[in-house]
Amino acid sequence: MNPKPQERASREDLDHGPDFDDLPGGAKAALEAVLMVLDEPATEEELAAGVGLATDTVRSLLAELQREYNGYTVKAPEMEDASHAGIGSSPRGFELRNIAGGWRIYSRTEFADIVGKYVLEGQTARLTQAALETLAVIAYRQPVSRARVSAIRGVNVDSVVRTLAQRGLIEDAGTDPESGAILYRTTSYFLERMGISSVGDLPQLSPHLPGLDGIAEFYDAGTM
Q1: Residue 187 pairs with which residues in a beta bridge?
Q2: How does pLDDT run across 92-103, given as a tens digit for each residue?
Q3: 37, 56, 102, 162: which sits with the fewest CB atoms below 10 Å from its CB?
Q4: Can you list the alpha helix ranges (DSSP code H) found in 18-84?
Q5: Which domains does the chain have, with CATH numbers?
Q6: At what angle are helices 5-16 and 55-69 packed, to 10 degrees?
Q7: Residues 184-211, mean pLDDT to the nearest whole number
Q8: Model confidence over 54-85: pLDDT tens digits?
Q9: pTM here?
Q10: Shortest CA distance to 48 belongs to which of 24, 27, 23, 22?
């Protein structure tokens, strides 16, 4: 009898997946690394495809990570039968949740007040150099997608864009009609902080960057 499609996919994952033995922490750590960068919950199948593991393996590793984050401990007589994940550990400030069929790491609800206070107070903190550079690109190229900003800066800007949005400096400006990517623009709060009435009052860059008069045309010629 021929195996079902899901069974065939699982076998292929096992046969052709990456060699996790060369990575610190192995397959579980690789899965954890992916979970740490998720913007929205991912299904077990999506995680399996992304990491290169069988779905059953991912399901088992998710259970281990969940118990580990919860400070899972066992009594001595149960040691031999228990998973090594989380034995003797303490609960983390975050947890792994399965919501509506998708998995994602969240801060624990018990720390909501602390996290909320940090986020609000963090809005008055100084921006990092990376955040300033990203904000400058968005200000001069708006509306612009994260992919375009990443291409201009040469680095991934996902986390920086989230920080700028949390601080109220940029906002969603709709989607690109061709790619469907979310576009970003600066906010009225940005204008207030800059002390200007509109983005048209931003200083012109060309006088300060000799030889870059055609920079706009250069970026517009890209495929992003």
Answers
A1: none
A2: 899 999 887 789
A3: 37
A4: 26-36, 44-51, 55-69
A5: 5-110 (1.10.10.10), 123-220 (1.10.10.10)
A6: 70
A7: 78
A8: 999 999 999 999 999 998 644 434 434 444 44
A9: 0.47
A10: 27
| Strand, helix or coil for residue 106 | strand
Closest CA to 168 of 115, 122, 204, 117: 122
Asked if 96 contacts 32 with a C-beta cutoff of 8 angstroms, the reply is no
Alpha-helical runs (H) found in the chain: 5-16, 26-36, 44-51, 55-69, 112-122, 129-141, 146-153, 158-166, 188-194, 215-220
**Which of 63, 38, 65 shows the shortest CA–CA distance to 50?**
38
Whether 148 and 161 have beta carbons less than 8 Å apart is answered as no
Tokens matching residue 88? 């003797």
- pLDDT, residue 58, reads 94
CA atoms within 13 A on the CB side of 127: 21
Residue 172 parent element (H or E)? strand 170-175
Question: Coil, strand or helix: which one is 170?
Answer: strand
pLDDT at 71: 86
In contact, 186 and 170? CB cutoff 8 Å: yes
**pLDDT digit string (tens) for 7-55?**
444 444 444 557 888 888 899 999 999 999 887 889 999 999 989 999 9
